[in-house]
Amino acid sequence: MLLEFYNTDLSGGLKIVYKDIHGNVLGEDDSKSEFLCLIDGKDFIVQEARFGGIVIQKK
Fold first, then answer.
1. Burial of 48 (0-12, 13-18, 19+ CB in 10 A)
2. Which residues contact 50 (CB under 8 A, 6 or more apart)?
3. Per-domain boundaries in the chain
4. 55 with 34: CB under 8 angstroms?
5. Can you tell me the distance from the alpha carbon of 20 to that of 17, in angstroms, rounded to the nearest whole number?
6. Are 57 and 39 in contact, with CB atoms under 8 Å apart?
7. Digits of tens for pLDDT over the chain (59 positions)?
8. Sign of CA dihedral 48, 51, 57, 59
9. Torsion of CA 8, 11, 12, 16, to 10 degrees
10. How far apart are alpha carbons 50 and 22 in whole angstroms?
């Protein structure tokens, strides 16, 4: 599954968009403040940056 991360609006927030391998949107979620995902078999935490944007850090 492909994931895309966005700010929900100008004041911030985290939006996660789930896509299939063809790029079709399967769902969206803006209820989380952080998200745990796997990239190349390693754990990463995705969250909103303090002054906007999205930060992805190794757990």
1. buried
2. none
3. 2-58
4. no
5. 10
6. no
7. 899 999 988 878 899 999 999 999 999 999 998 999 999 999 999 999 988 899 999 99
8. negative
9. 0
10. 32
Structure tokens at 39: 């990239």
Q: What is the pTM of this model?
A: 0.83
Query: In whole angstroms, what is the distance from residue 27 CA to residue 33 CA?
Result: 17
Residues with Cβ within 8 Å of 36's Cβ and at least 6 positions away in sequence, in order, are 43, 44, 45, 46, 59
DSSP string, 1-55: -EEEEE-SBTTB--EEEEE-TT--EEEEE---SEEEEEETTEEEEEEE-TTSSEE
Overall size of the chain counted in residues:
59
Rounded to whole angstroms, the Cα distance separating 56 from 42 reads 12
